[in-house]
Design goal:
The chain is an alpha+beta fold. It has a single domain, classed as Ribosome hibernation promotion factor-like (Double Stranded RNA Binding Domain, 2-Layer Sandwich), CATH 3.30.160. Helices cover 33% and strands 27% of the residues. The protein has two helices and four strands. It has a four-stranded mixed β-sheet with strand order 1-2-3-4, covered by helices on one side. Strand 2 and strand 3 form a beta hairpin. Helix 1 runs parallel beside helix 2. The longest helix is centred in the C-terminal third of the chain and has 19 residues. The model has no long low-confidence stretch (mean pLDDT 82).
């Protein structure tokens, strides 16, 4: 599955490396063969707010384009003060939406790797 990243210029090198490892790990959980999302494209958009202050507010937006599915575009976002937490929660929201829209049963759904 190809993964595209947007707005990485506002992050430093450590944050970019952390983001890419988290996205790679979490995207493997979604791209199971039984969910028929092999041809899907994932776009990760990271926006930062409150840059002048001591902390950054990270908004992570995921867009999953799955052309072979009945409802082919999944769009979720989450914002948090910690980038890791925002990434984990936005992927949890994406999993919930994919399970709901594709009618995958909870028992045969996603498992943590």
């Amino acid at each position: 599955m190809p993964i595209s990243y947007i707005n990485l210029k506002k992050l430093d090198d450590f944050e970019i490396a952390k983001l890419k490892t988290l996205v790679e790990r979490e995207s493997k959980k979604i791209m199971r063969p039984k969910h028929k999302l092999e041809n899907a494209n994932l776009v990760v958009n990271v926006k930062t707010k409150n840059v002048e202050g001591a902390k950054k507010l990270y908004q992570v937006i995921l867009k999953l384009d799955a052309p072979g599915t009945p409802k082919g575009l999944f769009d979720v976002s989450h914002e948090d003060w910690e980038m890791e937490r925002a990434v984990h929660r936005v992927f949890a929201n994406l999993k919930t939406i994919v399970l709901h829209r594709l009618r995958v049963k909870r028992g045969g759904g996603f498992k943590d790797v």
